[in-house]
Amino acid sequence: MLEDSSIIDRPFADELSDRYLVYALSTITARSLPDVRDGLKPVHRRLLWAMRLLRLDPGSGFKKCARVVGDVIGKYHPHGDQAVYDAMVRLAQNFALRYPLVDGQGNFGNVDGDGAAAMRYTEARLTAAANALMAGLDQGTVDFRETYNGEDEEPEVFPGLFPNLLANGAAGIAVGMATSIPPHNIGEIVDAAKHLIRFPDAPTETLIRKVRGPDFPTGGVLAEDEATILRAYETGRGSLRVRARFYAADEADEARREAGIESLGGGQWQLVITDIPYQVQRSKLIEQIATLVTDRKLPILDDVRDESAEETRIVLVPKSRNVDPDILKESLYKLTDLESRFSLNLNVLDKDRTPRVMGLRDLLTAWLEFQFDMLRARTRHRLGKIDARLELLEGYLVAYLNLDRIIEIIRTEDEPKQVMMAEFSLNDRQAEAILNMRLRSLRRLEEMEIRQEDSELRSEREELSRLLESEDLQRERMKADLTELKKNFGDPRRTQIEAAAPTRDIPLEAMIEREPITVILSKRGWVRALKGHAELASLESQKFKEGDAFAQAFHAQTTDKLLVAADDGRFFTLGADKLPGGRGFGEPVRAMIDIDAEAGIRTMFVASAAEQVLLAATDGRGFLAETSELIAETRKGRQVMGFRPGAKLLDVVPVDPQHDHVASYGTNRRLLVFPLDQMPVLARGKGVMIQRFRESELAAITTLKLEEGLSWPMGGGSGRTRTETDLTVWLGSRGGTGRSPPTGFPRQAPYFPRISAEDE
């Protein structure tokens, strides 16, 4: 059997590994990662180069994109035409690039996610930013290499001063690595670069005071603090939160305008979104919000409208004017792309074409090193041009000084070039230039212009020579060039930076429509809720069922949880929004909870009225309890307090945080005042002795601030209260028997004034 010389005998795993490595390196270096020097991938560089050769300058006319794409795939980039066109479209989108490099005419897509028209319909030319990026290509600054078929040449990198890598950012996925660089404000980049020129060892902490963070073309809000931004730019990796911006331009009140709250009159309002997060499609964002409305997953939002034209304007209509705007925003941040994360990964190819993750300082340093190289290269190139021109001018001056003899040689000699070179010590290039002079140039004025040009060029040459020899002059020249760049391309920052706490889960009750109500409880346990906060003193005159009467009333909000305490020590929870309206007599509380038939309703209060409550039984025992421990999740309630035989729950007193003493009063007409800290905090139980009785019971209890004294309502339904400020006589310890009350204290146990939710 004959051996085939084309067959390689090698282990398959080794061959596959080597070939995959070659493929991976090719993908990394020739497709996916940008170059730190010009911030471009090969496809973008080739697009701009092809457009330059087609003379599509900003001042020229447009050409069909199909023509550009054809040149690119035919001469420089042998890939699919659609992939090349998609790359070209992105360079023209002002919502994708902070400083577009292609000026497009026609449909190049929009922020709603609509695609561009076919390349045969659209036209394009270069922008001023692209020109600045390619400036110096014809000044011997960068090397050129052969194209893939060896027929043409293309630059390895663009030498212009425009900081495209940071200004426009980049994104790409390679084999085993990726890059994600956000756009930045060119004015801030220039300021940071100038600072780094002056202080080469400046830390990143100083630089981010210049480059404050990403500046996205779509604006928005960067919701991170300086420490998070610093950490990301120091390491080259991080994750940054970007939020939509709410702004109501026509709102007169500055605070509401900045919050995006647009007044509609009559207390009505709406939220206005003017900026959306980078790379979020506006149409899909609106669809997300609309889905929340239709699926009733956000009950505080009534409608969403897209009123966008050239600028974004998304209007959010709340369910009512009582909705909290901040809760609505937080909910939308959590449930939609109004808040998104941008992954920062500063992975680039360095000057040796090696992939590296760089921090902000390393990126700027590498770019500045390249720009100083380009400055020196341009200077050397210009010096070469000046020397060549001075050489010719020297020959011209010889010709004018010996004009008659030159003319005679040209007329009489068969080889005038050789004769002139021998007679006047001219070189070949000078002699050839003299022979090519036009007759109209042989005048005195031309000689004067040549002498002036010679003087100016020698002065420029001296200046450029000093520039090449002095690093200080090079730094000053670079700073001046950067200042000019900022003047030409600098603009205000679009993305605001506002540190914000992480988005939180908004409980469902917080999304319920928040309205003020007044809760009325009758002695037989019927409850109703009046709209608004009514005057409590006037509610005793409300109508009740025959044989029923007023028991208590308090202010609340429809979003509140209400705690119902039964005689048997059980606690039940009701939603304030579930209470019946104020018309009629209301409904019995028993219909809303599973309470024992023999148990009575003792009291009802707002759970948020106080963090602690004082529980007291008729036998004089009690304890402090955390309000959060009283909330029951079921209709059966929660057993909190136990009793001795014959005893039952007397009262539940919400504790004001400023109160420091307890006042208890028995049916034996004995009053006791003792420190609140003598009462233990328990989760459940019978508690401890508050006031000791022999044959009497506890009749009333409250908490107070000792220096303010004890207040109690006066009789006769006057609505007035009386206060005893000096309580020294009644001060004692918990478990004492107490003393006779002050003069004027009612014989029937008083219902002491209480704190309510609105007093919190």
UniProtKB/TrEMBL annotation:
<dbReference type="GO" id="GO:0006265">
    <property type="term" value="P:DNA topological change"/>
</dbReference>
<feature type="coiled-coil region">
    <location>
        <begin position="450"/>
        <end position="488"/>
    </location>
</feature>
<dbReference type="GO" id="GO:0009330">
    <property type="term" value="C:DNA topoisomerase type II (double strand cut, ATP-hydrolyzing) complex"/>
</dbReference>
<keyword id="KW-1003">Cell membrane</keyword>
<dbReference type="GO" id="GO:0003677">
    <property type="term" value="F:DNA binding"/>
</dbReference>
<dbReference type="GO" id="GO:0005524">
    <property type="term" value="F:ATP binding"/>
</dbReference>
<keyword id="KW-0799">Topoisomerase</keyword>
<feature type="site" description="Interaction with DNA">
    <location>
        <position position="77"/>
    </location>
</feature>
<dbReference type="GO" id="GO:0003918">
    <property type="term" value="F:DNA topoisomerase type II (double strand cut, ATP-hydrolyzing) activity"/>
</dbReference>
<comment type="similarity">
    <text>Belongs to the type II topoisomerase GyrA/ParC subunit family. ParC type 1 subfamily.</text>
</comment>
<feature type="active site" description="O-(5'-phospho-DNA)-tyrosine intermediate">
    <location>
        <position position="121"/>
    </location>
</feature>
<comment type="function">
    <text>Topoisomerase IV is essential for chromosome segregation. It relaxes supercoiled DNA. Performs the decatenation events required during the replication of a circular DNA molecule.</text>
</comment>
<keyword id="KW-0238">DNA-binding</keyword>
<feature type="site" description="Interaction with DNA">
    <location>
        <position position="41"/>
    </location>
</feature>
<keyword id="KW-0472">Membrane</keyword>
<feature type="domain" description="Topo IIA-type catalytic">
    <location>
        <begin position="33"/>
        <end position="511"/>
    </location>
</feature>
<dbReference type="InterPro" id="IPR013760">
    <property type="entry name" value="Topo_IIA-like_dom_sf"/>
</dbReference>
<keyword id="KW-0413">Isomerase</keyword>
<dbReference type="InterPro" id="IPR013757">
    <property type="entry name" value="Topo_IIA_A_a_sf"/>
</dbReference>
<keyword id="KW-0175">Coiled coil</keyword>
<dbReference type="InterPro" id="IPR013758">
    <property type="entry name" value="Topo_IIA_A/C_ab"/>
</dbReference>
<feature type="site" description="Transition state stabilizer">
    <location>
        <position position="120"/>
    </location>
</feature>
<dbReference type="GO" id="GO:0005694">
    <property type="term" value="C:chromosome"/>
</dbReference>
<comment type="subunit">
    <text>Heterotetramer composed of ParC and ParE.</text>
</comment>
<dbReference type="GO" id="GO:0005737">
    <property type="term" value="C:cytoplasm"/>
</dbReference>
<dbReference type="InterPro" id="IPR005742">
    <property type="entry name" value="TopoIV_A_Gneg"/>
</dbReference>
<feature type="region of interest" description="Disordered">
    <location>
        <begin position="734"/>
        <end position="760"/>
    </location>
</feature>
<dbReference type="InterPro" id="IPR002205">
    <property type="entry name" value="Topo_IIA_dom_A"/>
</dbReference>
<protein>
    <recommendedName>
        <fullName>DNA topoisomerase 4 subunit A</fullName>
        <ecNumber>5.6.2.2</ecNumber>
    </recommendedName>
</protein>
<dbReference type="GO" id="GO:0019897">
    <property type="term" value="C:extrinsic component of plasma membrane"/>
</dbReference>
<dbReference type="InterPro" id="IPR050220">
    <property type="entry name" value="Type_II_DNA_Topoisomerases"/>
</dbReference>
<dbReference type="InterPro" id="IPR035516">
    <property type="entry name" value="Gyrase/topoIV_suA_C"/>
</dbReference>
<feature type="site" description="Interaction with DNA">
    <location>
        <position position="79"/>
    </location>
</feature>
<dbReference type="Pfam" id="PF00521">
    <property type="entry name" value="DNA_topoisoIV"/>
</dbReference>
<dbReference type="GO" id="GO:0007059">
    <property type="term" value="P:chromosome segregation"/>
</dbReference>
